[in-house]
Design brief:
Structural class: alpha+beta
Largest sheet: 7 strands, antiparallel
Distance between the termini: 111 Å
CATH topology of the largest domain: Chitinase A, domain 3
CATH class of the largest domain: Alpha Beta
Shape: elongated
Number of helices: 6
CATH architecture of the largest domain: Roll
Helix content: 10-25%
Number of domains: 2
């Protein structure tokens, strides 16, 4: 073999080594994530996990009630979520204790926007795909590769290139007000208050502790002075005023506008309010979205 042949062979071998090295250095994120997810499935014996129907790269498992019909894109879905790191087990996102999340099934792919307190809309079709495999009351566990989640940039508490273990638990309700009504009835039963509570046609439940004998409140244009304490259903107080707070009723939440004019000055009553008559799906401050609220109210005075 002459020196030129030897040189050519050496060059070919060198090129092969360099190419192999580059190929290893630039292994795709898809193959890296898929290997990590398969290892996670094996380590945790998640034998029920299956690849998604379109083979885009995520795995999931659906658990459903025996009756009911599957969700469709136009349906409302009310749910809780938990999002954990597959690497460390750290919980990145968790639904609020005293509320629940809700949207249309067809919009589930972008629900993370509000959860992460960012103006960016993240498109995660895996969430909608999993929801379409569920009936109301069903749950899905999703193993989501980083490239189908938040990618190399991450988002909020979620770091770069993070594979996620995601759980979505849906509730067996087609309307939020039905869900709220059951929350209230269960709360009253647990507190031994069912017999003493009255359900107003507005769906607010109330208990009168002291019947007032003072002035009548003419309507929502009146200015009232009230003492109050507001709580979520776990008993945590989010606001109170024992000195007296004055406001026109039109500036207050809808439930106060509905109930306070029904009573005279001096009345002390308790009302448990469905979320749509309080702060709705957006919540306010410490009050999460779709939260049922529990108020003690004393009507001190009125200016009609």
């Amino acid at each position: 073999m002459n020196k030129f042949t030897k040189l050519g062979l050496f060059t070919l071998l060198l090129a092969t080594v360099v190419f192999s090295s580059c190929k290893k250095d630039y292994e795709s994120i898809q193959s890296i994530d898929d290997a990590a997810i398969k290892a996670y499935i094996s380590k945790n014996n998640l034998t029920q996990m299956i690849p998604d129907p379109d083979k885009t790269g995520f795995y999931y498992q659906a658990t459903n009630p025996t009756d009911g019909t599957f969700f469709l894109n136009p349906d409302s879905v009310f749910y809780d979520i938990t999002v954990k790191s597959m690497q460390t087990g750290a919980t990145y996102l968790q639904s609020p204790v005293n509320g629940n999340l809700g949207t249309y099934v067809g919009y589930l792919n972008s629900f993370f926007q509000s959860s992460l307190s960012t103006s960016i809309t993240y498109n995660i079709p895996a969430l909608r795909t999993a929801a379409l495999s569920l009936k109301p009351g069903g749950s899905a566990r999703i193993l989501l590769p980083s490239y189908l989640a938040f990618g190399k940039n991450g988002a909020g508490p979620i770091p770069s290139n993070e594979n996620l273990d995601f759980t979505i638990k849906t509730y067996p309700y087609r309307k939020q007000w039905l869900f709220d009504d059951d929350k209230i009835k269960n709360f009253l039963a647990a507190k031994g208050l069912t017999a003493s509570a009255t359900k107003d046609p507005s769906r607010i439940y109330y208990i009168v502790n002291t019947v007032g004998t003072g002035d009548v409140i003419n309507g929502i244009e009146s200015t009232v002075n009230v003492k109050y304490t507001g709580r979520t259903l776990d008993g945590a107080s989010f606001d109170s005023n024992s000195d007296g707070y004055s406001s026109t009723l039109t500036s207050l939440i809808q439930a106060w506008q509905i109930m306070i004019p029904k009573f005279k000055v001096g009345t002390k009553f308790r009302m448990i309010i469905p979320s749509d008559l309080a702060y709705g799906k957006s919540g306010s401050g410490a009050i999460p979205g779709n939260a049922v609220l529990d108020f003690d109210i004393e009507i001190v005075s009125v200016t009609n």
